[in-house]
Design a protein that fits this description.
279 residues, Rossmann fold, 7-stranded parallel β-sheet, binds NADP nicotinamide-adenine-dinucleotide phosphate, 7 strands, alpha/beta, 51% helix, single chain
Length: 279
């Protein structure tokens, strides 16, 4: 293994072809980190390459891709010091009507992809007794919503996983941090409205599905109903730079309020609050 004397921390950012991941890669490279942004659409990371990042094509659900990326970074720079597990997608639709293969894929990307990558970077972090693992959850890692069971449960799983990981790796100088974005203006929202309506728009859950689709259509930074991705990139940077980061950060429009109401309301009151929010 080529192991040059390290002067810079090395960061691997997943889901960096758009949205929060791209903003995070940008923020990190501007701060002087060595940054490997990864995603399937490597061709739309040329802008990151132009400013010094090292983009690599990686599908988080493919074992050979994940192993190859970690091996390349070990070979180039000794290993991954900072892992930002950000890649994700949203499968929305009622529990009943969602195709179970789509539900499984939701977990493959949002949960098992993150888990496998974490396994692969831990030996290096443990040996050097330093590492940061930032897991991008969601307000929905704490707060439930109708027609979001598969997405919400993948993020709830990520949250429990992160707590266990933090408890078992703190002894090796590894920090595990959960970041919960609120409404952020990225591709993810536009990407799930049509599938949501295809799954649940005309069946027994159609009324909620259509209201939800309208709610998400109204989400955008220019309308003041969503924050720009840089808000989350700045939060991730804060967690990385802190010598004693919080275990959880929440940033972006609506997330702190939603978590507050979840804490103070009973489950049934929160259900009603959610339905009223959707109109
Ligand atoms: N936007 C929000 O309001 C919001 C709120 C709460 C939480 N989040 C979370 O924030 C994270 C980032 O989402 P975003 O909002 O920035 O959305 P986005 O712009 O759609 O970005 C998602 C990223 O994930 C990557 N990705 C998806 N499937 C992948 C796969 N199989 N392998 C590798 N990469 C994959 C995509 O890249 P390729 O398609 O090129 O592979 C893309 O770069 C997600 O975990 C999401 O759950 C977002």
């Amino acid at each position: 293994m080529n192991n040059p004397k390290k002067t810079q921390r090395v960061a691997l950012v997943t889901g960096a072809s758009s949205g929060i991941g791209k903003a995070t890669a940008l923020a990190l490279v501007n701060e002087g980190y060595v940054v490997y942004p990864v995603a399937r659409r490597v061709e739309i990371m040329d802008d990151l390459k132009a400013i010094g990042c090292i983009p690599i094509k990686m599908d988080v659900t493919k074992e050979e891709d994940v192993v190859a990326v970690v091996e390349q970074i070990e070979c180039d720079h000794g290993g991954v010091d900072i892992l930002v597990n950000n890649a994700g997608l949203s499968v929305y639709g009622s529990v009943e009507e969602t195709d179970i293969d789509n539900a499984r894929y939701q977990f493959d990307v949002n949960f098992f992809g993150l888990g496998r990558l974490t396994q692969l970077v831990l030996p290096h972090m443990r040996e050097q007794r330093w590492g940061k693992i930032i897991n991008v959850s969601s307000g929905e890692g704490k707060v439930h919503a109708p027609l979001a069971a598969w997405y919400v449960s993948s993020k709830f799983a990520l949250e429990g996983f992160s707590d266990c990981l933090r408890a078992e790796t703190a002894q090796f100088g590894i920090d595990v941090v959960v970041v919960r974005p609120g409404a952020i203006d990225t591709e993810i929202t536009g990407g799930f409205i049509d599938p949501l309506l295809e799954t649940s728009g005309s069946g027994p859950y159609g009324d909620i599905a259509r209201k939800m689709a309208d709610w998400f259509r109204n989400m955008g930074a220019e309308k003041g109903t969503a924050s720009p991705p840089s808000v989350i990139a700045d939060t991730i940077l804060e967690a990385i730079k802190s010598s004693r980061p919080k275990t959880r950060y929440a940033a972006g429009i609506g997330v702190r309020q939603a978590i507050f109401f979840k804490r103070i309301l009973s489950d049934r009151m929160f259900d009603r609050f959610m339905m009223r929010m959707l109109g």
